Structures are given as structure tokens and as C-alpha cells.
Amino acid sequence: MSEIIASPSVRVLAQEKGIDIDALAKKLGRTTIGREDLEGTATPAAAAAAPAAGTSYWNVDHSHYGPVTEEPMSRFAKVASANLSAANQLIPQVTHHDRADVSGIEALRKAWKGEAIARGVKLTALAFHVKALARALREFPRFNASLSADGETLYLKDFVHIGIAVDTPHGLMVPVIRDADRKGLWQIAAEITDLASRAQARKIAPDEMGGASMSISNLGGLGGTAFTPIVNPPEVAILGITRTETITVWDGETPRPVPMVPLDLSYDHRVINGADAACFMSFLAGVIADPRRMMI
């Protein structure tokens, strides 16, 4: 009779995995074995017989079915892939979809077009979204936070830095606009243009890509009606934006066309619940609809 302490379920799992509990306990220098000790452990025979979970789906000779060309993943793409995979596995993520009236923003952009030319600044809608998000993060501090790796401590931040996802030929980069809540629209617009152009040229410094309160993934120039952006840890939420569309809104019995931008908020459900997300998005949509509130 084995003197190693292990529950019946653990012994059954060990048997299924072909693991000798006595040998494993001796190797670990312990007299108790738990389920966690069996994870990723198997005898050489069992390991040879069973490929790592999920990998068999990828081990395919695609040339068997037709012509293929191999293209190695870039270093940036590999890093992004590892981070996104880890985030998707560890974070219980939920996405809240909403939309906001951008009539006011478009009116201001049109009215300020001459000033933008004089300043040499491209005043994009994204600059307004950055400013609106900064305002919302000050109003809802739980969204401006990070959760510790062990899930036991929430760090509330007394700064507002907004990450801007930039798609480049060498992979996704997320430069950060620091203190967005304390900057005006013109400065934010200029920084967006500068950061995006330098990201394309691979001239972003490492200290310009960390410490964001929340990130924005903007697909507005490409299309789509909604998507589910993946939370970028250690942030607890991310805002997705897609292409503005004209929606019919009824003013009493009178139909009125209104330009609306789809918004997608993905969040870590360990920190944020559904009611929090709904309130946050309602506030954000209100600020976007009334740009004057961004200046408060």
C-alpha cells in the first residue's frame, strides 16, 4: 500500500495520465500529491502517445492539399501573439456594445477645419474619443485600475494615460498618450499623428509604450459594425471603435438621420461587472454626443 497521500480522484487522474504517484512524490520530495502536481506531467510513454493539448490540430502538412508559401512570424508578432493568448486564457472577458451620436464632433471638426490647417494639425475623430475616454476614466476610477497577478490587489491610478493601438507592417504597437485628461484636443491630435507615424517607422521608444490606463483599438477607417477587442493586461478594459454609420432616430413622429459610432468595451469581469460597464458606456456616449463635456 502506497504511503503517499492523494485523493481518489487524483489517483484516477494519475492512472489515466500514466503517472507513477510514488515516483513523482519522491522526485518532488513530498508525501502528498495534488491535482496541480499532475498538470503537464506524464511518463515518457504517455507523453509520446498523447501530443500536447490542441497541438495536433496545427500539425498538418498543408502542402498535401495544395501549394503553400511559408512566411516566418516577426518578433513583434510573436510577442503580441503570446500576450494576447495569455490574456485570452487568464482574463474572464465580457464585451459591452453600444453607440454614440457624433453629430457634435463632426460639426466641430468642420468648424475648426481652417484652424487645423493653420496649426498644421489633423484633427481626427480619434482625438475626441481619447479626450472623452479620459473624462470617463476620471468619472469611473475602477476602470482606471490594474489587478495584481494573484488577483488579490487592485491598483487604482491617479493618472490617465491612453494607449492607441497602431497596426504596422512589423506588428501591432500601442504607444501611449500621457496625461490625456490634462491635455487639450489640439495637443492630443498632434500626439496621435506623431506617435502613429513613428510607430510605422519603428521609432517608438520602449518607455512610450507602457503604463496605459486603458487602450483604444480604432477600426473606424477600415470598417465593421462591432468586434470584441481583447483586454491588454495589466489594463482591466479596452475600448473598440468601428466605422460611423447613419442611424434613423425618431424625434416624436419625425425620423431623423444621425451619425452614430459603434463602441465596444471589453472588460475584466473580475474587476468590473455588467452594471458598471453599462453605466460607464452610457456616460462615455453622453460625453461623445456633447463634446462640451470633454472640457470639464
Task: Explain what you see.
- This protein has 296 residues and is of the alpha+beta class.
- The protein has two domains: 8-64, no CATH class; 75-295, Chloramphenicol acetyltransferase-like domain (Chloramphenicol Acetyltransferase, 2-Layer Sandwich), CATH 3.30.559.10.
- Helices cover 36% and strands 20% of the residues.
- The chain contains ten helices and eleven strands.
- It has helices at 8-17, 21-28, 35-38, 44-49, 75-90, 103-111, 113-119, 125-139, 185-200, 274-289; strands at 93-101, 145-147, 154-156, 162-164, 166-168, 171-173, 176-177, 214-218, 237-241, 245-251, 254-268.
- Strands 1, 4, 7, 8, 9, 10 and 11 form a seven-stranded mixed β-sheet that branches. Strands 2-3 form a two-stranded antiparallel sheet. A two-stranded antiparallel sheet has the order 5-6.
SSE diagram, text form:
Elements: H1 8-17, H2 21-28, H3 35-38, H4 44-49, H5 75-90, E1 93-101, H6 103-111, H7 113-119, H8 125-139, E2 145-147, E3 154-156, E4 162-164, E5 166-168, E6 171-173, E7 176-177, H9 185-200, E8 214-218, E9 237-241, E10 245-251, E11 254-268, H10 274-289
Parallel strand pairs: 4-8, 8-9
Antiparallel strand pairs: 1-11, 2-3, 4-7, 5-6, 9-11, 10-11
Helix pairs in contact: 8-9, 8-10
Features:
single chain; 296 residues; alpha+beta; Chloramphenicol Acetyltransferase; 2 domains; seven-stranded mixed sheet; 36% helix
